Amino acid sequence: MLTGALAAASVLVVLVLWTAAGGPAALLTEGTAILAAARLTGLVAADLLLLQVLAMARVPWLEHAWGQDRLARGHRLLGFTSFWLMAGHVVLVGYGYAAPAGTGVFAQLADLVVRYPGMLLAAAGTTLLVLVVGLSVRAARRRVRYENWHLLHLYAYLGVGLAVPHQLWNGAHFVTSPAASVYWWTLWGAAFAALLVFRVGRPLWLSRRHRLTVTEVRHEVSDVYSVYLGGQRLDRLAARPGQFLTWRLRTGRGWSRAHPFSLSEAPRADRLRFTFRAAGDDGARLAGAVAGTAVLIEGPFGTLTESRRRGERVLLMAAGIGITPLRALLEGMRYAPDEVTLIYRARSDEELVLRDEIDGIARERGAQVIYLPGPPPAGRVSWLTADLAARFADDEALAHLVPELAGRDVFLCGPPPWMAAARAALRAAGVPARQVHDERFGW
Question: Over 60: is that where the pLDDT of 141 sits?
Answer without folding.
Answer: no
